[in-house]
Write a structure and sequence with these properties.
Length: 266
């Protein structure tokens, strides 16, 4: 039998994990995508989830978001939670501020939308339609839509994967700034090892629906790929994901060489 318990923030104390899974199973037919998973996420903790395609990452996130059920085990999550996906999923016929308060029914809804959009740097785009927004702006609207609900748990499903490199860096800085301000627990699903290390307090590697490894990231913030200890953690995570560091280095050299050649030839 499965059990999903919605944690009431009014009754919770600071020592109560906002996310708690015990022996959680989710399967499709005979395939167990999540297989007896145990997991705690502490209040205000930033956790990144890595794993190969099919390892159960998105299924786990969807279960935590209430978009998918579990087949057995116990799953405890806060009522106040929000999810941001790789696609912004904005309603094209609604202006930015109206997308932010979609499904939110409070007398001060517009004021809260304005505040949320201001926090993500889009105070000047309140009346914009999604078709007129850049990719980064659209993802900021989606992030504001999540934050306007003041979640105790923020679920991020590869929200920066479709962005260009410079926009991704800006979004990384923004998400850390907002996380520090609002202090939700965060679960980030990503395929990007560097992104996981740059953002998270703890990185979990999922394999075959189970936790294969988890590493505490104790590097000081603000982080960068060149700081002491970063590459050692990166190498460990790549190894857990079945990627040889030498293979990655060779691929990076090839990309750099190709870029230089293109630049040289105009």
């Amino acid at each position: 039998m499965s059990s999903i318990d919605h944690l009431d923030a009014a009754k919770a104390n600071h020592s109560t994990p906002p996310v708690q899974l015990r022996n959680v199973v989710r399967q499709f037919g005979q395939q167990r995508v999540i297989d007896g998973l145990d997991l705690d996420i502490a209040p205000g903790e930033f956790v990144a989830l890595l794993g190969a395609s099919g390892s159960g990452k998105t299924t786990l996130l969807r279960s935590l978001a209430g978009l998918d059920s579990i087949d057995s085990g116990q799953l405890r999550v806060p009522k106040a939670r929000a999810a941001v996906f790789q696609e912004p999923r904005l309603m094209p016929w609604k202006r930015a501020w109206k997308n932010v308060i979609l499904g939110l029914h409070t007398p001060d809804a517009k004021a809260r939308a304005v505040q949320a959009l201001t926090e993500v740097g889009l105070a000047h785009r309140l009346e914009a339609y999604p078709a007129t927004l850049s990719g980064g702006e659209a993802q900021r609207v989606a992030l504001a839509r999540g934050l306007v609900r003041e979640p105790k748990l923020l679920l991020l499903d590869e929200p920066f994967a479709a962005l260009d490199a410079l926009t991704r860096i800006r979004m990384h800085r923004l998400i850390i700034e907002l996380w520090r301000k609002h202090t939700p627990a965060v679960l980030l699903v990503t395929h990007d090892v560097d992104e996981a290390i740059l953002l998270a307090d703890r990185v979990i590697v999922l394999a075959n629906g189970k936790i294969a490894e988890q590493l505490t990231i104790d590097l000081p913030r603000a982080r960068d790929t060149g700081q002491e200890g970063f590459q050692a953690i990166r190498a460990r995570l790549l190894s857990l994901l079945g990627v040889e560091v030498e293979t990655v280095a060779a691929a990076q050299r090839q990309v750099t060489h190709t870029t230089v050649r293109r630049f040289a030839h105009g």
